[in-house]
Design a protein that fits this description.
By secondary structure, the chain is of the alpha+beta class. It has helices at residues 2-15, 61-77, 100-107, 110-113, 192-212, 231-236, 255-262, and strands spanning 23-37, 91-97, 118-120, 131-136, 141-149, 166-173, 176-184, 217-223, 239-240, 251-252, 267-269, 272-274, 277-281, 298-304, 325-326, 329-330, 340-348.
């Protein structure tokens, strides 16, 4: 608690020259790829056979229960560098969850149950059976609507192609309308076209929300399977590197400079870092033109969230995320991705 109070006081000092006269509320919004959170039973029509007791991973009740415990530990810790341990993030988008059953088991884990987390999820068409979802603290975020927009294949030759859709949750945070679009774009086993196509569809969803309700704050998050400077993110989704360059139709991508300048990422592959796990922000969440006006909800800072327990300590992936499996061996790890968080702030009247 002392650590939180110190951080909060430092935060207030930074935000205002009249800090002693003002109070601010801070909200954490995160994203985490849970790396194959499967239960141990087969879902009809899904290719989940690897994650069955007789599958290649020998996925059983012990491994599943450990996975739930590991995921809930990380999700509960997210945001607690800035916020109290009893609060954590208000919202966390997740990917690679099999179904509502695993999500019910996840939020029932003690670290998450203590905060009363709930979730938004709609079963999607992905053939492997992985979906996106949004976890939320109902004390902080009120859900108004949940829609799964399908990924629409534009190539006639691939008309049977099925993958994750775009989970769009509209609600209220800090008394303001907020829409969150949670995504998991096609993997790099597919060429860039498929991610570019998905990014254009996300952009269209975002634009349609703002046409109907221009005051809505929009957050786009997910495992994009591309870096911030790749075409899907920089051009198709219009994610800008710097706040000063963000136009009314654009989004701000705070992760670009973190990867390009500092070499930091969320997943480690072939000796280098990628930063696929991004959270992008609509212009009305930004303090533009140098004006530090926090009378409405605004972006404050961003963070790749790490803890020692999330980091592989040996082997060829040393220093990277400690994954669940490596070369078919169960490591009792967490995920092959690190989580990401943005912090939003609003002055309390």
């Amino acid at each position: 608690m002392k650590r939180f109070l110190l951080l909060f006081l430092l935060l207030v000092t930074v935000l205002s020259t009249h800090a002693q006269e003002k109070k601010f509320a801070v909200y954490g919004v995160g994203f985490y790829n849970l790396e194959n959170l499967f239960d141990i039973t087969h879902d009809e029509g899904k290719n989940d056979y690897e994650f069955l007791p007789d599958g290649s991973y020998k996925w059983n009740e012990i491994k599943y229960s450990h996975k739930l415990a590991n995921m809930s530990r990380t999700l509960a810790d997210m945001g607690t560098d800035v916020l109290p341990k009893s609060v954590g993030c208000a919202l966390i988008g997740v990917s690679e969850v099999e179904n509502a059953h695993v999500l019910n088991d996840l939020v029932a884990q003690p670290p998450l149950a203590a905060r009363g987390y709930k979730f938004c999820h709609i079963e999607g068409p992905d053939r492997r059976g992985v979906d996106c979802a949004l976890l939320y603290n109902p004390k902080l975020f009120k859900v108004n609507s949940v829609v799964l927009h399908p990924y629409v294949q534009q190539l006639e030759k691939d008309s049977a192609y099925k993958t994750r859709g775009f989970l769009t949750v509209c609600g209220t945070l800090a008394g303001e309308p907020l829409a969150v679009i949670v995504n998991h774009l096609p993997s790099r086993f597919n060429v860039s076209f498929y991610r570019e196509q998905g990014a254009r569809q996300i952009s269209a969803i975002k634009d349609s929300i703002l046409r109907v309700a221009p005051s809505t704050k929009v957050i786009v998050m997910g495992d994009m399977n591309d870096d911030p400077m790749d075409k899907s993110m920089a051009e198709c989704l219009r994610g800008k590197r710097n706040i000063k360059d963000v136009g009314d139709k654009d989004l701000y991508n705070p992760w670009w400079n973190l990867l390009a300048r500092e070499g930091k990422g969320t997943l480690f592959y072939d000796g280098g870092w990628n930063l696929f796990d991004q959270i992008l922000l609509s212009p009305n969440l930004l303090c533009r033109d140098g004006k530090k006006d926090y009378s409405t909800l605004k972006y404050l800072k961003h963070q790749i969230f790490t803890r020692d327990y999330l980091v592989q300590q040996e082997g060829k992936y040393k220093g990277g995320p400690k994954r669940t499996h490596s070369s078919g061996i169960w490591l009792d790890g967490y995920s092959d991705h690190f989580p990401t968080i943005v912090y939003l702030v609003k002055q309390v009247k």
